[in-house]
């Protein structure tokens, strides 16, 4: 997992109005920008079942905000080629 300080090695998903809380690293893993960098390996979150597991796990963290939840869902959907706004 890349460290967040190595910004040139990190690409991000665009979020217009909000601080970037979820970062996609060049190695494909996801980094949550909470009170400390919180990495999630892509192969641990790359299916709907794994995503639900992580969302439940993260919802128990006091630092995990609804905006972080939104950004994580949007990023995983984008990586999977899924439009989250279509049912």
Task: Provide keyphrases for this structure.
single chain, alpha+beta, 2 helices, 87 residues, 16% strand, disordered N terminus, 4 strands
The beta-strand count equals 4
Strand ordering within the main sheet: 1-2-3-4
- Biggest sheet record: 4 strands, antiparallel
Topology pattern, helix = H, strand = E: EEEEHH
Q: How would you describe the shape? A: globular
Class by helix and strand content?
alpha+beta
Q: Gyration radius, to the nearest Å?
A: 12 Å
Strand portion? 15-25%
Mean pLDDT over all positions: 80
Instruction: Indicate the percent of residues in helices.
Output: 25-40%
Distinct helical segment count: 2
Query: Which stretches are low in confidence, meaning pLDDT under 50 for 5 or more residues running?
Result: 1-17
List the domain count as a whole number. Answer: 1
Gap from first CA to last CA: 33 Å
């Amino acid at each position: 997992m890349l460290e967040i300080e190595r910004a040139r090695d990190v690409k991000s998903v665009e979020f217009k109005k909000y601080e970037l809380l979820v970062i996609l690293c060049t190695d494909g893993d996801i980094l949550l920008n909470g009170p400390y960098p919180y990495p999630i390996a892509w192969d641990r979150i790359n299916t709907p079942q794994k995503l639900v597991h992580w969302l439940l796990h993260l919802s128990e963290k006091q630092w995990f905000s609804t905006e972080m939840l939104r950004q994580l869902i949007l990023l995983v959907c984008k990586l999977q080629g899924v439009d989250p706004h279509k049912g």
